[in-house]
Structures are given as C-alpha cells and as structure tokens.
Amino acid sequence: MKRSVTAAVRFLRAHKISYAEHLYAYQERGGTSVSAHELGVSEHVVVKTLVMQTETGKPLVVLMHGDKQVSTKGLARIIGTKGVAPCDPVVANKHSGYIVGGTSPFGTRKTMPIYMEKSILDLPRIYINGGAKGFLVSLAPNVLADVLNAVPVSVATEGD
Questions:
Q1: What totals of helices (H) and strands (E) does the chain contain, helices first?
Q2: Given this model, what pLDDT does residue 159 score?
Q3: Could you tell me the CATH superfamily of domain 7-158?
Q4: Sorting pLDDT into bands at 50, 70 and 90, what band is 3?
Q5: Has this prediction a pTM greater than 0.90?
C-alpha cells in the first residue's frame, strides 16, 4: 500500500526533517490504540493531533500522548482564556485542511498556535499523523518544538 504525498509529507521534506512512514489498517473511531497495536508500539509514543478552539472560536492545536486526555480547563488557564473545547469535525477540517482521523500538525491550512504535552519531549521517538487516515510518521519529538514552535504545557490527564 503506497501513500500519496500529503501536505504533511511536503512540509517535512521542505524542512529537511528525517522521518519514517508507517501505514496501518485504519479503523473509524479506533484512535491511537489501533495504530499503536498495528505498529507494535506503546500508545504513549503515539501522539494525537487535536484541533480545539477557545470560547471565542480561535483555533489551536494540542499534541497529546495517545494514552492521555487533555485537561481543557488546565489548558485554558495556561493560555489565559475562559475555555477550550474540541472543534466540530467540519470546523477542524477547515482550519487544518485535514480530515479528522488524518490530522497532522505539519502543513496545516491555517497557522494556529500549537501546544504540546511537555513529556512528549522526553521520548526518544514519536509516531504522529502524516496527513491521512492509516498513515503515521515517526520522528524525533524535538521537531515539534524546533520546527512547529509548539509550546510545552502540562495538561495531560489519564485516558478513559
């Protein structure tokens, strides 16, 4: 199965970022547990890309370990806004240019502030969406801070 070149792949290539491609059998609503299982890695090293918005509708991206959830109250407090909530999938698609389930933080349609759980930086390698369903790229986590200017925050809560 060959993946077509996504906006994320074009971004990674343009920035000369070293990465590896990983294809897996995507399952609707399967989440990071499916991709981690398919690739034989811990769900903790699979990073999900979440498009959220403030109470005023300002979009932002949160990068979180696959086995954790985002404390939206904690994030709102850190960024100085009243509230943060996940975007409706249609709105998220307009902001990112990706279909939900295939959202990558690389090569988004709109430039949005990016926040990442700071413990992601402690991992030797992460797996993150490459811009399509069933397609992850693995790379060094420092790329998120160095190239995307992702702001490290501590907002993880235990997964469901």
A1: 5, 10
A2: 61
A3: YbaK/aminoacyl-tRNA synthetase-associated domain (3.90.960.10)
A4: low
A5: yes
